[in-house]
Structure formats: C-alpha cells, structure tokens
C-alpha cells in the first residue's frame, strides 16, 4: 500500500516525463497493488476465526467496490476544481495516511498485538488453534491445478470480469466527456 501510494503521488510527474515513464510507473504500481488480495487472505488466516472469515471477506471485497463508487465522483470533483493532477495527489496522500495507520495499528498476529484485550486474544487464538512451531512441508499438486478445467474456467471468468470492470472504470469517464460532452464533474458521478 505504501509503494502504491508513493507511485500514485508520482504519477503526474511521470506523465510529464513522457508516456514510457508513465507506463512504467503504472505497471510497477499494478505489480505492488496486485498482491493486496492474496495478502489479505494471510491476514485473515492469523486473525479471523473460521466462523467469521466469510463475513470478513465479504466486507473487505465489498469495500473495494464501495471505494470505487466513492472515489469516482470525488475524482470528477477534484479534477474539475483543481486539475487532473490533484486526483493523484489527494488519493496518494490518503494512501500514505492509510499505510502509516496500518503499520501503527495492525499487527501480524494476535500474539504480538497490544491493542486487543486478553479475552479477545484468547478467543481468536482458541478458535484458530496454535500453529507456531509447525514446520510441515506441504506438497502442492501443481500439475493437477494447472491442468484442471475448473481452474481455467475460474481464470477465464475472473479475467473477463476484471477486463469489463476496469475497461468501464477507466474508459467510461473519457467516453462521457469526449463523445457525450458531459462536464468532467458529472462523468465521475455517472461512472460511479
């Protein structure tokens, strides 16, 4: 999150440096942002009791889409009032604040967190079971995974959904402004 926030802050400068630099910055940002969803599962595995994981996942993934719904209108307002660069500066600063707060408040496991009560810590650890010291090496069936029709169906489905979602997310405001002649501020609200 910290790296993506810094790269978001640098995006306007990269754009002024040329298309190659802009693409490089955005690709690097995507690489760092791409690990967010897989990493959140590791957080849940250490913090969420099994009976609460589905709820936590639903809230987190819904938050991703809710953030898009909130940020699109705000982006239109910021860009219209302060210029397109302001969108990257404002959201970059918000990302930096989020990162600092995360590093301060979120701990790797309940054992090392001094913010939670002993009762809550015992509840979480009791529901998860103690796994420290387990050094069992797991053999993953990679061949079976990579040759599974069900896995490739999920990959195709996820790719298609993301392609449609991110194409609309990135191209709809431009289409509404350039082709339909909407005001920039309104395109954010409509896109959301």
TrEMBL record:
It comes from the Eukaryota. GO terms for biological process: monoatomic anion transport. GO terms for cellular component: membrane. Residues 1-192 form the Major facilitator superfamily (MFS) profile domain. It holds the Pfam family MFS_1. It is a multi-pass membrane protein. Keywords: Membrane, Signal, Transmembrane, Transmembrane helix. It is found in: Membrane. InterPro entries: MFS, MFS_dom, MFS_Na/Anion_cotransporter, MFS_trans_sf. Residues 1-15 form the signal peptide. GO terms for molecular function: transmembrane transporter activity. PANTHER family: GH23975P, SOLUTE CARRIER FAMILY 17. This is Sialin. It comes from Culex pipiens.
